[in-house]
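Progress report, Aim 2. The chain analyzed during this reporting quarter is listed below.
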Amino acid sequence: MQKFISVLLVFVSFFTAHFAQIEIKINPEKYNLIDPNVSALPAPVEQPVGDGFVQLSEVKMHYVVYGSGETPLILIHGNGGSADSLKSLAQLLANHYTVYAIESRCHGQSSDPGVITYELMAKDVVEFGRALGLDKPLLMGHSDGGMVTLAAAANYPDFARAIISCGSNSKPSGFWPYFPFGVFVNNLFHPDKLNDLMLYEPDFTAEYLGRITCPAYIVCGEYDIMKLTDHLFIHESVPNSDFCVVKGAVHGDYLRDGRAYVLAMDWLTAKGL
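Predicted structure tokens for the chain:
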């Protein structure tokens, strides 16, 4: 049964991807389609300069530090991930920033207080930054981590210098239907609060996203698991945000192959960050 469902999801996602491509071709003016040039990537900073834990109000958070740049950058992984999930991106960004690759509550070596929401993870990020004395850090997150950056910027508008949110959705209906269906089936066989998180959260309204005041970059893949219209909704709801679609990318490949680094550095440099 599970094998049949897996094959079905691959089939549906194939046609969904082509529908997304048609959407861009029909309405090209809505989308900033970018094909980042990764031919001149810097050498990655191979070794971390720190690996530790910090006790927050509800969570003992594990984190790994790369680089020693003047500006701190907190890097936040997606659902089910860890500090290693975005390691290659952290190693590239460490050429310019001090990168703190954190592990969210209920993930990796961080503690599990029994409950997880995007609001609580955002609170953890802010507590982490304050506990380490980070002055106006940059926040960059992927998938669930992208939602955490949005929640942190909306709930704590004076905390972040700027945010980059990659592969985020504003609500569960922002997914292409095949994805939550797959999560729902998986949850029937393997119940998990991380699955529940994707099935029932977030609920980012235009009013909520409108509370974000720092510079924001909303990024997604051309063939992402979220609808391009939902990414566009996030962009249009966040005041003065920038938006792009990564040509040919799916949900996470561009975070690992250098394209997200190029996008981030081009945008941060243009913003003087």
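The chain has a mean pLDDT of 92. The chain has one domain: 2-270. These observations will guide the mutagenesis work planned for the next reporting period.
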